Structures are given as C-alpha cells and as structure tokens.
Amino acid sequence: MSPLSNIWNHPKTSAAGLLIAIVTVAGVLSQQGITLGSAGTGTVVALAGAIATALLGLLAQDPASSSSSTTAATKLGAWALIALLLPLPFATGCSGTTVAQDIVNWTPALQSAVATVDTTAALLAPADAPIFAAATAGFDAASNLLVTQARAYLANPSASLLAQIQTQIVTFQQQVDASLLQAAKIVNPASQKHALTAIQEVATVVSAMLSLVQSISSKSAVAQMAAHSAIKLATVQSVLDRSLAVQMVALHYSEPLGLARAQVDRAEHNLALDGF
Fold first, then answer.
1. Structural domain of residue 43, as residue ranges?
2. How far is residue 274's CA from residue 270's CA, in Å, rounded to a whole number?
3. Which of 86, 110, 184, 226 is the S-S candidate for 275 at Cβ 3.0 to 4.6 Å?
4. What was the pLDDT predicted at 25?
5. With pLDDT > 90 as the criterion, what percentage of the chain qualifies?
6. Structural domain tally of the chain?
C-alpha cells in the first residue's frame, strides 16, 4: 500500500502520528531553548506543542462505532498518553535564565496567594485563627526572598545564586507543607476549608517553582534538595484539592485544563521520583 493511500484510508491514525511528531519536536526545541518567537506570555514552540496535545486528546476521545474503530480509539488513547509523557512547558525548564524568568512570572500569583493567606485568619472561628496565623507566619518573608533571588539570578546567572534559590525553594516548600498539616488538624469544618484552600494556593505556586528549579539542577544538587525535604509531597496529597492546582496552572500558562493537568501530573511524578 502506498503512503498516500495509507493516509487516505487511515486519516485518524495519520493525524495522530503528525500531532505526536509536532509534540515531540516542540519538546526537543524547548529543551534546546529554541522558541521561534513569543506567543502571549509563552513561546510559539510551547503553543504549538500545547495545541497538538489538545487535538490529540480530542482524537483519542472520539467515540467508536465498531470494533475496529474501538481498537483505533484505544491506540489513539495510548498515543495521547505517550504525548503527555513528553516534555511539557513547566515540567522541564530549558535553561537557568528561562526558569528564573518563569519564577518571576509566577510572582503575581504568589503575592496574591500570600495576600489571601494574610486575610484568611479573619474568616476562621476565634479558636482557629491563632493556629492558622502561627502555621503561616513567615510566608511573606519567604516569598519575597525567593522572588528577589530569582530576579538576581535572571540579571546575573551564577552557580552561587542558583544554590541560594535551591535552598530557599526547599525551605519555603517545607514551610508550606508543614502549614498544610497544621491546618488539617483544625476541627471546625468551615475554618479548615478556608485555611486549606488559602494555603494550597501558595503550595501550588511553590510546587511549580520547585519543579522548575529541579529541572535545571544537577543530580547531586537535586539529591541534596530532596534530602532536606523532610515532609514529602505524598504526605500532604490527601489534604490538597487537585482541581484547584490544575486551574491555577491553566490560568498561569493560558492553556486548556487537560494540558495543565498533564503538567501537574508530570511535575509531581518527577518530584516524587527524585525523593521529594
């Protein structure tokens, strides 16, 4: 069978192959720092990869009308999974400077989340407010220091500044995770919900930043960072609202929820794999 007739007889399979190729090439170009220009707050390469992934997902969800099309849909679903396992925008940073810029780009979301934490105590029951305040004390100072370090690295990249960011992001992440565990102990249901939601907004941004820093750190540096992570991500998973994290990532990168969910999954997988 000639290539042209094969494409004609199996249009969905051919389309899926083309989309996978686009996602693969986009991932490689991103890792090499090739952007092909800007697209909003991202790059043309990232946008092309995101669109291809989304279209591949739509192909995989196309309803089947026969056993043969069911088999095809199954294969497409598997290919969609393969595509989602390829490098994604915030799950793999392409350079120290790019990551520093991305961390700085997360600044408004981080500052907004910390501001929400600062005002949440007033929404809690009188007995719960002091517990929450103690658990979240220092968020402002920690976030300001991290952003300052990222901006300094962006202006003048160096190994010493990267080491400072590595230390600070782990310190902040541990602080946030500890506060989540403390908030989970609040007995009043309404107070607990307010407290966990406010802290999780900060936790989502910090986790994204940690994943970014992880992606440009050496294996020895990542191992050292993980060694200082006494509270593992798995420990706090049960108190987190996954949909909130996905929504925040989708909003930040102006992308579909499906792609954001894949990014969150990939980032969490990589962090867990490295011992966080």
1. 3-84
2. 6
3. 226
4. 57
5. 49
6. 2
